[in-house]
Specification:
The protein has one domain: Aldolase class I (TIM Barrel, Alpha-Beta Barrel). Helix content is 37%, strand content 18%. The protein contains twelve helices and 13 strands. The strands form three sheets. It has an eight-stranded parallel barrel, surrounded by six helices. Strand 8 (152-156), helix 6 and strand 9 form a beta-alpha-beta unit. Helix 5 (135-146) runs parallel beside helix 6 (171-184) and helix 7 (199-211) crosses helix 8. The longest helix is centred in the last third of the chain and has 16 residues, at 299-314. It is globular, with a radius of gyration of 18 Å. Bound molecules: flavin mononucleotide. Flavin mononucleotide is lined by residues 44-46, 49, 69, 83, 92, 94, 96, 98, 123, 156, 159, 192, 221-222, 239-240, 243, 267-270, 289-292.
Length: 328
């Protein structure tokens, strides 16, 4: 992150970085919610929580960025250590707990780099101190304060690291939170779900969210299924290769119910262009990565885009938009 921030101070170096990383090709583009997404590979929430590196991350070749999770007030998150590698499994385990500089800081940062080169979604969450009963007020405050700078919002109710947060994953509760956010903004509002529920539960929740006006769903957050790793830490959610299968499964289950009625964003263990391609075919318009970027480095984004084009060509599929939903 500090390297990316330094890069932003050096316009020529930033342009060179951009030339090295960006794949510009009309076949990768989609228009969604009236906005142009230059490619379907986005940066998942939690990497640039405070939007300090938006220009550099856009120059890394992402088709869109998701900043946050941001909370109304700044908070320091959980005590360290709170981030671990399961290196041989290309996976991570994190218990960050929404460490972030708060919405005022985020708003300033986004205003500084306005308009951004690619769509920037804002992932919002409640402060740890806020009672679950009052969570809606935190979401309202966030959306009201940040709406000028959001390509879309994400209601995060699926992080395992804020006590009780996942209890908000109930149909009526989600509908209530969506109502609150939609009262405050015309921007698309999405809901990010956990992989740790039964398929039918997730499908019911997805249906409730869509009926309450969700413009999309993000599947999935990290998992607390610790049987996936031989030596789990005591707390924190798992991401990366160990999450790949479950995240894909849940996408397919949810797509079978709501595909065509909202935009699906697939995240969890994506590390190759064939992962991206399979998620698109299964009904996702967009994908996101986090853990594979940590293990693969910045040029991964370029590789995913280039190889995705090869896969499309190999199958005689005209463009990304035509790949979406082919297997649904
Ligand atoms: C260190 C770390 C911090 C994260 N922070 C957030 C967060 O603040 N909000 C959120 O919605 N997801 C957060 N996530 C989850 C990711 O956005 C993503 O859903 C998950 O890691 C699965 O994708 P991956 O397998 O490509 O990493 C975080 C993940 C990691 C590894």
């Amino acid at each position: 992150m500090s390297g990316l921030q330094s890069l932003q101070q050096l316009p020529q170096a930033l342009r060179r970085f951009e030339r090295q990383h960006c794949v510009i090709d009309r076949r990768l583009e989609q228009e969604i919610w009236g906005q142009r997404f230059p490619n379907p590979i986005g940066l998942a929430a939690g990497f640039d929580k405070d939007a300090v590196a938006v220009p550099a991350l856009a120059a890394m070749g992402f088709g869109f960025l998701e900043v946050g999770t941001v909370t109304p007030k700044p908070q320091s998150g959980n005590p360290r250590p709170r981030l671990f590698r399961h290196r041989e499994l290309h996976s991570l385990q994190n218990a960050m707990g929404f460490n972030n500089a708060g919405m005022e800081s985020l708003s300033r940062r986004l205003a500084q780099n306005w308009p951004p080169p690619v769509p920037v979604g804002i992932n919002v969450g409640k402060n740890r101190q806020t009672e679950l009963m009052s969570a809606g007020e935190d979401y309202r405050t966030l959306v009201r304060r940040l709406k000028e700078h959001a390509s879309y919002f994400v209601i995060n109710i699926s992080s395992p690291n804020t006590p009780g947060l996942r209890d908000l994953q109930q149909g009526e509760t989600v509908a209530g939170l969506l109502d609150i956010c939609l009262e405050e903004t015309e921007a698309p509002v999405l809901v990010k779900l956990s992989p740790d529920m039964e398929d039918d539960e997730a499908v019911a929740l997805a249906r409730a969210a869509v009926e309450a006006g969700a413009a999309g769903l993000i599947l999935t957050n990290t998992t607390v299924n610790y049987s996936l790793v031989p030596e789990p830490q005591a707390t924190g959610g798992l991401s990366g290769r160990v999450l790949r299968r479950r995240s894909f499964e849940l996408l397919k289950a949810v797509a079978s119910e709501v595909y065509g009625r909202c935009i699906l964003v697939s995240v969890g263990g994506i590390e190759s262009a064939s992962d991206v391609y399979a998620r698109l075919r299964a009904g996702a318009h967009l994908t996101q990565i986090y853990t594979s970027l940590i293990y693969g480095g910045s040029l991964l984004v370029r590789r995913l885009n280039e190889e995705l084009l090869d896969l499309l060509e190999g199958d005689g599929v005209r463009n990304v938009a035509s790949a979406v939903g082919l297997d649904v």
